[in-house]
Amino acid sequence: MRILHTITGLSRKSGGTSSCTYHLVRALNEKGCATDLLTSAGTLENPLVGSGEFIKEIPAHFHTPFAYSREMRHALDLSSGYDLIHTNGLWLDLNYYSCIVARRRGLPYIISPHGMLYPQALAVKPWRKRIMRLLCFNRLLREAACIHVTCEEERLHYRSLGFKNPVAVIPNLLPEIPGLKEIPQERNKKRIGFLGRFHPIKNLPSLLKAWKLLGEKTRNAELLLIGGGAESYEKELHQMAALCPNRNIRFCGFVDGKEKYHLLASLTALCVPSLQENFGMTVLESLAMETPVIASKTTPWEELESEDCGWWVNNDPQSLAETILNVLNLSEEDRSRMGKNGKKLLFRKYHADVVTRKMIDLYHWVTAGESLPEFVEIEKCKVVPKS
Asked: Computed from CA positions of residues 185, 24, 136, 96, in that sequence, does the dihedral angle turn out positive or negative?
C-alpha cells in the first residue's frame, strides 16, 4: 500500500496544519506505511517544517487567491503507483486537483479539512467559500471515501452541513521530542504563557485585558507571549501590553526546537484563549512538558478538566482573569499532579504509535475493505444545533 499526501505549503510560517501533516507522514513511514508528501518548495527565508526523502518538493508559482499552480498540477499528473490520495486543507487548487486526479484514476481519496469547515472559518470570506462549495467542493467532499477530522466537535460541524459519507475521528499526534528527558522542569517563577501565531483568531487581546484586570495580583508573575505575526498586529499587541501596570509581559518572538520546550517547561500554565481552534498542537506540547493548560470553550479540550490536567473556560477577559488567578495561587503539589495527569493523557491518546495505527487501519479499510475501524462513523448522526 502506497499513500500520497498533498498540502499546498509546508513552511514554518504556514501554521499548525503544516506541522501536524509533516509529523503524521513521517510517523507513517517509520511504521512501514510508504507515504509521500507532495508540497511546494520552501525558501531560505521560510524553510519547510522538516525534511525527509518522502517530501516531494515542487518549485511552484501560485496565481489567483485559489493558489492555482501549473507546476503542482503537473507534478500530480506525473505521480503514479499510489493506492490512495489524502489531501490536507480546503479551498486551494492543490486540494481540488488532488481529488480530481484520484477520481480520474479510480482511486479513493481522503480529505482532512483541518478545521476549515467550522462555522467560524466559513464566516471568513463567506461568499467566496459558498461559491466554491457550490461549484466543486461540496461534490468533492460528498464523494470522498472518508473525511478525516481531529476531534468530535469537528465531526459534528461536518455533519451539520448535511454530508453523510464516512467520517474518521483521529487526533493529531505529538511527534517525538529530542532530548525530552534532558529538558529541566525549572519553575522558579509563576508564569502564564501563550504559544502560537499572533492572529486575531487567537484572541490575544482578551488575554492581555485579563492580565491588566489582575493588576497588582500579577506583581510576582510574568506573562510570556511566544510567537509572531503580522507587523501591524504585533504593534497593536505591544501597545496593549504597555498599558498593563507591572511591565511584566515578555514578547519572546518565534522559537522552535529545544528553546520552545524549555519555555513551555518553565510555565505554570499555558493559555489557549482562541476564538476557534480545531485542535491545537501547542496543547500537546505543553502536556509533554507536564505543564497544565487553560483552554477556551471554543477549543475541543473539555478533557483537560475531566482528566484533571487543565481548565476549560470562557475566553472573555473576566473569565480568563479569574482562571489565571486560580492558577497563580495553585500549590506546587497540585500543579505537579495536574502536570503528570496531562502527560498520562498524552501518551494514552496522542502518542505517535496510537495515532499512526489508527490512520493505517483507516487506509486498509478504505483501500482493501478490511474491518471497519471503531473510530469511523458511516451513518449520519445528530448534528450541531444551528445558533
From this structure: positive
